[in-house]
Amino acid sequence: MTLSIAKLFPALIALSFLPCANLRAQDRLPPIPADKQTAAQEKAVAEYKDLRGADLTGPPWSVMLRVPDLVVPSLQLRLHNQRNSALSAKLTEFAIMLAARHWTNNFEWNAHSTLAKNAGLNPAILDAVADGRRPQGMAEEEDVLYDFCTELLQNQSVSDPTYARMLARFGEPGIVEAASLEGYYTYLSMIMNTARSPLAQGVKPQLAPFPK
Q1: Residue 135 φ/ψ, nearest 5 degrees
Q2: Domains in the chain and their CATH numbers?
Q3: pLDDT in tens, 81-105
Q4: What angle do CA 206, 125, 123 make, to 5 degrees?
């Protein structure tokens, strides 16, 4: 039985886009093999391992390795977030998730969603953020942080009422910490979005792009 051209046409059109789809999904800046690394890159890899106690194996660090001097200062910011933040672990992870959602960066979202839940963030809050909705039932501190971070990300500024609430709840250190978290995870997301850094094999993205 032969198929009509009318029936074959949609399939042919779909096939014609496959090379473009593969190109869009391409990892532009994959990890650099050890035998291809420069002396400066080898040094950055060794310093990363000394600081973190783990090998530098994937993004964003493997992308950043193209500019080796960025690796250690960027890692030190991450270690500060983990060990000495002016915000609690729960709120630190909440701020990270807001930046990851804003940039639709599935790598950071997947990496930190479990950390956020383990730190005590309600999974329903994460579900709402993933959907682009304002979460319901947030605690006061979560509500204040949500308004501050989302205003900063969306408006590139923070209104006086939102700033005043943030100052009253967290003080100046909390304001600087929250702003730096949005900036830092914007930085990482922009690097990985540019590189089209893929998730690990078999890991499904949890975020869909926002409508344009």
Answers
A1: -65, 145
A2: 47-84 (no CATH), 87-195 (1.20.1290.10)
A3: 999 999 999 999 999 999 999 999 9
A4: 65
93 contacts 83 by C-beta, under 8 angstroms: no
The pTM of this model reads: 0.85
- Residue with the bigger pLDDT between 51 and 22: it is 51
User: Residue 175: which of 84, 48, 71, 85 has the closest Cα?
Assistant: 85
Listed residue (102, 65, 92) closest to 197, CA to CA: 65
Per-residue pLDDT tens digits for 127-150: 999 999 999 999 999 999 999 999
80 vs 134, 170, 191, CA distance in Å?
28, 18, 20
